[in-house]
Amino acid sequence: MLLDNYKSVQEKISEACARAGRDPKEVTLVAVSKTKPEENITELYNAGVRDFGENYIQELRRKHEDLPLDIRWHMIGHLQRNKVKYIAGYITMIHAVDSFELAETIEKEAVKNNRSIPILIEVNVAGEDTKFGVSCEEAPALVRQIAENLPHVLVSGLMTSAPFVKNPEDNRPVFRKLRQLSVDIDMENTDNENVEMKTLSMGMTNDYQIAVEEGATIVRVGTAIFGARDYSRQKTD
Ligand SMILES: *Cc1c(COP(=O)(O)O)cnc(C)c1O
């Protein structure tokens, strides 16, 4: 059942790629499993799925401990500095970095783990009060500051959560703006070894097809794969 959902999302990604003249191999589908039981992850894992997204550190730690080691875990939620140490050893990508202070902590934990950690800068493109993320205007300076000071933090691109809208078409300008910002930042950082603006993490259940048309290389899809979430059963941290 979950696998059917997953495949149907993949198919829609392929169709969106076809409309935009893109290769579907350029797009990674991250299955957002937050609040969902480990059996759900195992079901997809057994069919070959490896990229999963989580928002809450406590839950991520438990799942990482219980489930196969070759799962690629993506931390997609807001991350507190004092929690970085719990995931620094294995996390595939931290999607929502929006301050130099958080990046500094990631640098410290990356060094301790003798690795470099790929991150994305979270951009609040639409300027919503309720959302984390830097503004489009602040993003280039943050990338530069990280590039010049934190050699174990690999800036791999940008991430955004677009507004919740009835018509996903309304988010097209948001995705377009993030992509243009990424191109601009890439041009400014051709000399910086730890800046590789290859990843655009944008698009969720409601709007991922539009995001793919506009250049997303990662879409983060939960509900369309796992069904609606029940937060009442889960302590979130
Ligand atoms: C929960 C979440 C998603 C998945 O949202 P759906 O609408 O269920 O697809 C994607 N990105 C972030 C940052 C999330 O918190």
Tally of helical segments: 9
Number of strands: 8
CATH class bucket: Alpha Beta
Globular, elongated, flat, extended or rod-shaped: what is the shape? globular
- Class computed from helices, strands and strand pairing: alpha/beta
- The CATH homologous superfamily is named Alanine racemase
Low-confidence stretches: none
> Span from first to last CA?
29 Å
Note the main sheet: 8 strands, parallel
Integer tally of domains: 1
Percent of residues in helices comes to 25-40%
Bin the strand percentage.
Answer: 15-25%
CATH architecture term = Alpha-Beta Barrel
Cα Rg = 17 Å
- Widest beta sheet: strand line-up: 7-6-5-4-3-2-1-8
Average pLDDT taken over every residue: 96
Bound molecules: pyridoxal-5'-phosphate
According to CATH, the fold-level topology is TIM Barrel
What letter string, H or E per element, gives the SSE order? HEHEHEHEHEHEHEHEH
Task: Please write out the topology.
Blueprint: H1 2-20, E1 28-32, H2 38-45, E2 51-54, H3 57-66, E3 72-75, H4 84-87, E4 93-97, H5 100-112, E5 117-122, H6 139-149, E6 153-159, H7 172-188, E7 195-201, H8 208-213, E8 218-221, H9 223-226
Parallel strand pairs: 1-2, 1-8, 2-3, 3-4, 4-5, 5-6, 6-7
Bound molecules: pyridoxal-5'-phosphate.
